[in-house]
Design goal:
alpha+beta, two-stranded antiparallel ribbon, flat, 133 residues, three-stranded antiparallel beta sheet
Length: 133
């Protein structure tokens, strides 16, 4: 009884090499189309919440189809501004602008560079066993 099962397992192992794993779909970063996208769906914008930014829903373009991406909350980031997603009219048609964060202040970059120049002392060494000594 064990032999037929073993033979079936060997045969299945031989033919499994013919099956390709599913390919990951790559998201196109710069989508420009000649035709206008569908009208946005009516979506109720929730009341503001502390530490969160609302990203409204939009029609995404995936594999030649328009797919509705529902609105969602994004965590607020310091010194950054959230650009909401949507379609914008350009010279050659309509361009998809996905939601993204943009830096509004470069003060943290200046502080980091200035701090390295002024501080010549070595950084403290991390000792994971210091609490046990």
């Amino acid at each position: 009884m064990k032999y037929p099962l073993s033979i079936a397992a060997i045969i299945a192992g031989r033919f499994s090499s013919f099956i390709r794993p599913p390919q990951k779909t790559e998201v196109e970063t710069n989508v420009t189309l000649k035709n206008a996208p569908p009208a946005p769906k009516d979506e109720v914008e929730p009341s503001p919440r502390a530490g969160l930014v609302w990203s409204p829903g939009f029609w995404n373009y995936v594999g030649g189809w328009y797919v509705w991406e529902a609105g969602h909350w994004e965590l607020e980031r310091t010194n950054q501004l959230y650009l909401k997603p949507g379609w914008q009219k350009v010279i050659r048609g309509w361009q998809l602008q996905r939601g993204e964060w943009r830096v509004t202040s470069v003060s943290f970059v200046k502080k980091g560079a200035a701090g390295k120049d002024q501080d010549s002392s070595p950084e403290p060494h991390y000792d994971p066993l210091a609490a046990f000594r």
